[in-house]
Design goal:
single chain; about 325 residues; alpha/beta; 7 strands; about 15% strand; elongated
Length: about 325
């Protein structure tokens, strides 16, 4: 009986553990297994080197899904087609993670979107060089759907050549269009360019420039040496310390409010002086007039003393002397 209970508890523990494990897997990512997906495929008639299974798929930069498979049309749809009649396309199948409503809407609008110019195109992801599949609206007349004679397993979306592929194709077309005369002319032009560059380089006064550069470096070295001596001078450190002390004292005076109090006292004194002058304006004018009169009297007295020095002790100037033979 005890053994049956032990087995029962063990079985319950295993069931609960499996339930917890399944719930954890579902929460951590297993829910994606039950999400509706939308599959479509596109065909390329050029190399898709660099595009791998699992590469991201973006619609105008917005993540949409990933590349699910990269196949060849010969192995997928043209097994029974003669070799000389095969298209040899690259079949790229894409898995898009959408809700049920979004998937139904995309299936319904896929034909209209393709007619409006929605195309799949391989592009490089920044400087890493990894390719991804980009969906965007392009010129439908310039990039028509590729011809094929089979029924696609999934919804078909036309493709467009990659931008890098177009650049390489244009470069190849340009090189192919060059004939022998053009190449000869291009070579002659390059030779003239190299010759002109050699001539210009020979005309550069390298020795003179080197002499000037040496002189400039010597001057700069002397300047740096003088700056080092100046910075090493103790008097400079003392000056900086004194300036720091003065700045600290000024800051202390400002922080303590003494400077503000001094300015306030000067303002009060100025106001009191202005009031004093305003109240005694007549007395000040009379005093100034008296000072002017006194100054005039002093000036007259000074002139009299200069003419009659003895007159400061005796009263009045000396009498005039009467010469003989002259009437008074």
């Amino acid at each position: 009986m005890e053994e049956a209970k032990r087995y029962g508890r063990l079985g319950a523990f295993v069931v609960v553990s499996l339930c917890i494990l399944a719930t954890s897997v579902f929460l951590l990512g297993g829910r994606k297994w039950f999400q509706p997906t939308f599959m479509f495929e596109t065909y390329f008639d050029q190399s898709v080197a660099g595009l791998d299974v699992g590469a991201p798929v973006r619609f105008r930069g917005v993540p949409l899904g990933h590349v699910a498979a990269i196949l060849t049309s010969a192995a997928t749809y043209e097994q029974s087609v003669p070799l000389d009649k095969r298209h040899e396309y690259i079949v790229v199948r894409v898995e898009v993670n959408l809700s049920g409503q979004e998937a139904a809407q995309m299936r319904r609008d896929a034909v209209s979107l393709a007619a409006r110019g929605l195309r799949a195109q391989t592009q490089l992801a920044g400087i890493t060089g990894q390719q991804y599949l980009a969906l965007d609206f392009l010129d439908a007349q310039k990039y028509p759907p590729l011809p094929f004679d089979w029924t696609p397993q999934y919804l078909y979306l036309p493709s467009a050549p990659s931008s890098a592929g177009e650049i390489i194709a244009k470069a190849q077309s340009f090189l192919a269009s060059l004939n022998e005369a053009d190449i000869k002319t291009l070579g002659q032009g390059l030779n003239r360019l190299v010759s002109d560059l050699d001539t210009k380089l020979e005309e550069i006064p390298v020795t003179e420039l080197a002499t000037h550069l040496q002189a400039a470096l010597k001057t700069a070295d002397g300047t740096l040496s003088r700056m080092d001596r100046l910075l090493a001078d103790p008097s400079l450190k003392q000056t900086l310390d004194n300036a720091a002390v003065v700045s600290g004292r000024v800051r202390q005076v400002t922080d303590d409010g003494e400077l503000d109090q001094l300015v306030k006292d000067l303002d009060d004194a100025s106001q009191r002086l202005d009031a004093l002058v305003g109240d005694n304006q007549y007395d000040v004018r009379a005093t100034v007039e008296d000072l002017r009169t006194t100054a005039g009297n002093l000036r007259a007295l000074s002139e009299s003393v200069k003419r009659y020095p003895a007159g400061i002790l005796v009263s009045g100037p000396p009498e005039k002397i009467q010469l003989p033979g002259r009437s008074p």
